[in-house]
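Hi V.,

Quick status before I head out on leave. The structure for the redesign project is tokenized and pasted below; the design run finished overnight.
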């Protein structure tokens, strides 16, 4: 490989890395985490999707989002998830999720997992890695899980 070929290849790799970097805003980050959570068991139950949209619609973060904007956002996130995978989507989400939404994200994720009445091994592992990545203290994690279990009993 010649000198100029190496420079062109190096520049090409740099531009590919820039293009492949996933940049999400705070709302997209929150929604991305929830999308990964509801698809963790490789099955999108209607109850989970409906519940997610209800939760997001109640949040200040999404208050100004019309249904069309929400749909476009989830289309974008779904494409990223399909092309780059769950891990890349979650990593990008953690980079721009506001710290004050960490516990909220874990609480809603837990609620979504419990909403269909079953917790799969994949969902439990995802929640475990989520609380670790968000650095939520064990005592707080246990409180959130306890409340969500009570909420989803009936």
């Amino acid at each position: 490989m010649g000198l100029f070929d190496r420079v062109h290849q190096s520049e090409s790799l740099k531009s590919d890395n820039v293009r492949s970097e996933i940049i999400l805003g705070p709302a997209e980050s929150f929604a991305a985490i929830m999308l990964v959570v509801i698809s963790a068991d490789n099955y999108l139950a209607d109850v989970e999707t409906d519940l997610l949209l209800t939760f997001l619609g109640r949040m200040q973060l999404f208050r100004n989002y019309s249904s069309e904007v929400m749909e476009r956002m989830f289309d974008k996130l779904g494409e990223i998830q399909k092309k780059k995978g769950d891990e890349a989507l979650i990593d990008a989400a953690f980079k721009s999720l506001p710290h004050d939404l960490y516990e909220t994200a874990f609480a809603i994720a837990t609620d979504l997992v419990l909403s269909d009445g079953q917790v799969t091994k994949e969902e439990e592992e995802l929640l475990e890695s989520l609380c670790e990545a968000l650095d939520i203290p064990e005592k707080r994690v246990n409180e959130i899980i306890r409340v969500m279990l009570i909420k989803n009993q009936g």
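Above is the designed sequence. The two ends are 67 Å apart (CA to CA).

G. will cover questions while I'm gone.

Best,
W.
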